[in-house]
Specification:
- The longest helix has 19 residues, at 514-532.
- Strands 13, 14, 15, 16, 17, 18, 19 and 20 form an 8-stranded mixed β-sheet that branches.
- Helices cover 35% and strands 18% of the residues.
- It is an alpha/beta fold.
- It has 21 helices and 20 strands.
Length: 579
């Protein structure tokens, strides 16, 4: 390297400059004074480094590792000892169950200066006020071969409550997920915001309220899966309901807008946490729980199965797997479907003859059970199944089942999961009770979700497709790639009995002879069923084809494969106003 300096420098000064630069840069240096040529040069000094075998951790690193080990112990020992009585794992053991080794963890030293004896401002550590990681663990890990972001509450630290530093970690994790496009797992066990430390994090722009803004931004961008391990109260309860999928654990989980104590203060009602917001409440009544696990291990198994149907982020195709034959032969489908539209059969038995064996994962099975919503595979390809369930109130659509179906369709569409509709319904339920429960509002959302979904859709008219039920269930007017019928299918404004009662009741009542009246009624019913039979619909090209039931699986596999990359778009607008 050559350096030119001013004319007035002496030779000694030039040598000093050359030597200093050579030592600093580690390269030979030549110094030129003015226009007089090279007057000084220097080579970098030889450095003597310790031999590699002599290098190793110092006390500084050993002290750091001791601090980390202390952080990993969690909150006060007395709270950790109580976990086994509650039937749940310590959060670090839970992470080991889920992931084994973590890729990395962020914010291990959060709030370190407030409690650890090595912190400069802590004179004497109180074992009862330990706040390792501020009670919230965030980081990244590999789960079932997929890279994921995660957060997990440490219930030994002030009952998993959330405070300023933990909130900041939570928000950073969400914001990084927005950028990385990787799924998020929330392992929740939190009593809510830390009331005695709420200053600085509750209503701030970057406070706890930002959780739900970030949840909203992540919604439909990456899968968000929440597992509840304890009572999640108040603000903490919004994370599971904002997540795409929520798993509760029997005898352990609960979520509610307020604790039983607060409920009693406000309303006078005395109620247990389980009765207020346990798994039974949210699996059967509110619909907020998608799956219920028996224990911690089962919760992990359910999520491991769930992620096999989901892509890492929006715009990516869901993963496929090796095709498997169905559980039972397809040849039994026709015998399974009763000819009478009023006789029940279990649609799960139909699925067992159509989709890949052991591929069905049903969501919210106990909520709105007149419709089955499930992930499954056909020839290895994931599909979202929306199927009427004739064993439950004849498969009529009630407000809860309409809401469940709409939300499931919406989620499938967000993550590029094709939809399979199995239609066998008398239509939307009528009556004062369902009107009060919002059958029109929920039905509207069901139809809207079907209308707006741009993933490939296949509809099968299995048996009855009456009234507006065929609209919600992906009928011909709702842009499915195909509508195919089984020979048992019927499509009409209403069923035969209702139609005859509406149109011919007065004429029938005028026939005095009972046998003659019955014969005429049977004749009218047969005529009406011929008018609404799927063959008539195929003749008029209302449906695309009528297929032998034994060929249904192969027909669906071929159609889903052919339309795998179909392109569909919505009108240019900001968004609809229905949901």
């Amino acid at each position: 390297m050559r350096v030119r300096i001013g004319q007035g420098a002496t030779a000694d000064e030039a040598h000093a400059i050359a030597a200093a630069l050579a030592e600093h840069l580690g390269d030979p240096v030549e110094v030129v004074v003015g226009d007089e040529g090279v007057v000084a040069s220097a080579d970098p000094p030889e450095r003597e480094y310790p031999l590699e075998d002599d290098l190793g951790p110092t006390d500084r690193e050993r002290r750091l590792r001791e601090e980390l080990a202390d952080i990993y112990e969690g909150g006060p020992e007395k709270y950790r000892e109580r976990l086994s009585e509650q039937g749940k794992l310590f959060v670090r053991d839970r992470l080991d169950l889920w992931f084994g080794d973590l890729a990395f963890e962020d914010g291990r030293f959060a709030n370190f200066d407030s409690w650890h004896p090595n912190a400069p401002d802590v004179d004497e550590a109180d074992p009862d006020t330990r706040l390792p990681a501020d009670g919230l663990i965030t980081g990244a890990a590999e789960f079932e071969g997929r890279d994921v972001h995660f957060m997990a509450n440490d219930f030994t630290v002030k009952a998993g409550s959330m405070a300023r530093r933990g909130v900041e970690k939570f928000l950073r994790m969400q914001q990084r997920a927005l950028k990385s496009g990787k799924p998020v797992l929330y392992l929740m066990d939190s009593s809510g915001g830390r009331i005695d430390e709420q200053t600085g994090f509750f209503a701030n722009r970057e406070g706890i309220g930002k959780y739900y803004y970030n949840h909203s931004m992540l919604s439909g961008r990456v899968p968000q899966i929440c597992v509840l391990y304890g009572p999640c109260i108040a603000g903490a309860a919004y994370t599971p309901v904002f997540a795409d999928f929520t798993v509760m654990v029997e005898g352990m989980s609960a979520m509610a807008i307020a604790s039983p104590r607060m409920v009693e203060m406000v309303t006078g009602e005395e109620i247990s946490m389980d009765d207020l917001g346990g798994p039974a409440v949210h699996a059967r009544h509110s619909g907020s729980a998608d799956l219920v696990a028996h224990d911690e291990e089962h919760a992990r198994e359910l999520v491991a199965q769930l992620v096999t149907y989901l892509p890492d982020h929006a715009g990516e195709k869901p993963p496929t797997s090796a095709p498997r034959p169905p559980t039972y032969p397809t040849e039994g489908i026709d015998e399974l479907i009763p000819e009478s539209p009023n006789r029940p059969y279990d649609v799960h038995d139909l699925l067992d003859r159509v989709v890949d064996a052991e591929s069905v994962l049903e969501l919210r099975p106990d909520y709105g059970s007149e419709i089955v919503t499930a992930f499954a595979r056909i020839d290895g390809r994931p599909v979202g199944v929306v199927a009427n369930q004739p064993t439950q109130r004849s498969g009529a659509i009630f407000p809860d089942s309409a809401r469940k179906a709409a939300e499931f369709i919406w989620t499938c569409d967000a993550y590029e999961i094709p939809l399979l509709y199995l239609c066998d319904t008398p239509g939307f339920m009528a009556g004062s009770a369902v009107e009060k429960e919002g059958i029109l509002e929920q039905g509207k959302k069901f139809i809207y979700a079907t209308s707006s979904a741009t993933v490939p859709k296949q509809t099968v008219v299995v048996r009855k497709a009456y009234g507006a039920g065929i609209y919600a269930m992906g009928g011909p007017a709702y842009d499915p790639e195909s509508v195919i019928g089984l020979p048992s299918g019927e499509v009409g404004i209403m069923g035969p009995e209702a139609a005859i009662n509406a149109v011919y009741r007065n004429k029938l009542d005028a026939i005095e002879d009972d046998e003659e009246r019955a014969a005429r009624e049977a004749e009218l019913r047969a005529e009406y069923r011929r008018d609404i039979a799927v063959h008539r619909m195929a003749s008029e090209v209302v449906v695309d084809d009528v297929v032998p039931p034994s060929d249904l699986r192969a027909e669906l596999a071929a159609r889903f494969a052919f339309y795998e990359d179909v392109e569909k778009s919505l009108p240019d607008k900001k968004h609809g106003t229905v949901l």
